[in-house]
Amino acid sequence: MNGALRIAHVDDHETVQLGFASLLTGQDDLQLVASVTTVEQLLPMIADVDLVVLDIRLSDGSTVDHNLRVLHDHGARVLAFTAADNPGELRAASRGGVLGIMRKSESRDAILDAIRTAATGVMVATTEWAAALDADPFITSAGLSPKEREVLALYASGDKSVTVAHRAGLSTGTVAEYVRRIRYKYAMAGRPAHTKVDLYKRAVEDGILPSPES
Question: What local confidence, expressed as pLDDT, does residue 214 receive?
Fold first, then answer.
């Protein structure tokens, strides 16, 4: 298992947990390092995880928005794994910066491929994800969280990642993950920001930074 991608699974149904563990059995490049029922239970070991596979509806009273915010604040990559029966939750997951949305009913090979792709930080395009984005009335807005706006303001102003990390109280790795998510959100809003100059323009457009003339 040395060098395997480390996967954590968050789901409050025992049968789903057992099925997911069985899915990863025999995959030499994938290691299930945690199987828990809440995001809070995962936090003590989050630093040792390459990807969190998250059920977007949990019975502990938490919302998908909250769970994604907590996971992203800890620098985690997240793949949504769901029955996909609630369009509102799917839209919330897509806005929250998941790397993809996979149905639990997908084939074994499709799920494993998605896990491998997302664990390396690459987005996974699926029908459910595209439908959630297309149906979201707020998608033209990048929908940045307050912390993402803070990171964007610092980074787009010219600060290096290490400076942004110090000023925002984050690790440099978490800053990099924030910047990746910010770029992704702008791309999904039809306002791509491939360069640092592009990010500066988006920050000015959205009132996160003052315009040069002001």
Answer: 47
Residue 155 is which amino acid?
A: Y
Start-to-end C-alpha separation, the chain? 56
Count Cα neighbours of 45 within 13 Å in the Cβ-side half-sphere. Answer: 18
- Would you list the DSSP string of 10-50? E-S-HHHHHHHHHHHTT-TTEEEEEEESSHHHHGGGGGG-S
Across the chain, which distance is largest between two alpha carbons, in Å?
60
- As a whole-number percent, the residues of the chain with pLDDT over 70 amount to 89
* Contact criterion met (CB below 8 Å) for 161 and 176: yes
**φ, ψ dihedrals at 32, nearest 5°:** -80, 110
CB-CB contact of 45 with 65 (8 Å):
no
Instruction: Report which of 74, 111, 95, 65 is spatially closest to residue 184, judged by C-alpha positions.
Output: 95
Rounded mean pLDDT of the chain?
Answer: 87
pTM score of the predicted model: 0.68
C-alpha dist (Å) from residue 40 to 37, 55, 112, 192: 9, 14, 25, 33
Contacts with 180 (C-beta within 8 Å, 6 or more apart), sequence order:
121
- Predicted confidence at residue 46, as pLDDT, reads 94
In this predicted structure, the answer to whether residue 88 has a pLDDT above a threshold of 80 is no
